[in-house]
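Structure tokens please, single chain.
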Amino acid sequence: MQSLAPFSSLDLKSITRLTRPGVNPARSLIQCSSVSHDASNPTAAQLPTAHSSRRYEWQSACAILASKVVSQQQDTEKPNAVAAVNGHPSLHLVPLNYSALPKPLTIADLSPAPMHGSQLRVAYQGVPGAYSEAAAGKAYPKCEAIPCDQFEVAFQAVELWVADRAVLPVENSLGGSIHRNYDLLLRHRLHIVGEVQLPVHHCLLALPGVRREHLRRVISHPQALSQCEHTLTRMGLSVAREAVDDTAGAAEYIAANALPDTAAIASARAAELYGLKVVADGIQNDSSNVTRFVMLAREPIIPRTDRPFKTSIVFAHEKQGTSVLFKVLSAFAFRDISLTKIESRPHRSCPIRIVGDADTGATAKHFEYLYYIDFEASMAEARAQNALSEVQEFTSFLRVLGSYPMDMTPWAPSSPQD
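Here you go.
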């Protein structure tokens, strides 16, 4: 039998037993580390050398040392006792509160989660009571909603495995597109895996006991203030309007600071969460107030053809002009693919294009644009693949943001029960 490597320069620095309440002592963890061996110390335990060691001798030595540690259990567990192993004091560890430690990721956490499963961690921008939280609950009814203070944080939460999904608003039927999130869709590498449309029902909230005529200020998200502007005027409220980051955050701010002269525009759920009362219900200018949210994930889903799908893309082309854009859009029209959205955004990496006239020497400056398009077709369909192949001939940049199931939930105007 081949002998082990020489151990003449090794010794046991420490043998430490790590225990937790309720753990069997026989399953103690033994930790060994190497130190320089002092031959002058006759009490030091000698490990087998290369000249005399055999595998069974090494195993026997380890078993003897382990048994010595177990035999010293009573001494090491006494208060203020200093146990020694091989003449070296053992390390006393402070007991940890294991229940307070973060739960480690398991293999299930690293696997793609089901589209509509339970126990998903879903990030959203805002605080509890926000409309984004309601959208997360509609998309994934049994999810764990994770609030984020910014849209950027919600993207990063998914990228860093803190969350499995992110639910973010992209457009509102009254306020239009949320351009910030369209820019973030291009900056990050997440994939759209679904959409949900949520009717918005605004309420005017204040502290209990506060009367409407005592209000001097109304705070909320800028779009919520705009969506309720006419209603506030018809109510005869001569109040200052102040914009904050989100609707539910406005309700939380009033409750935390006990502001008797300030009201918030938020949901009825926010009133319940933060102990406010509903001063006025349904104060949006238009009952057809709907926000469209998209769900984002690290991996795309497999497109299918057995149910309605939507695909979102973004592209840019070097030669601006209606002729090139017409050719791009014709690729969809010739294949009977309906477009549900088209919007241009300035191209931040090269925002200006300079065009010169060779005859006069004059130059003109034009904005460069990115085009966001949603169309009703799945990437599993040949017509969608062929359309994008043709679009690619006229574009300098093309990216599929996602191909995902459409929200086919019957829609109704917002009501107090929403």
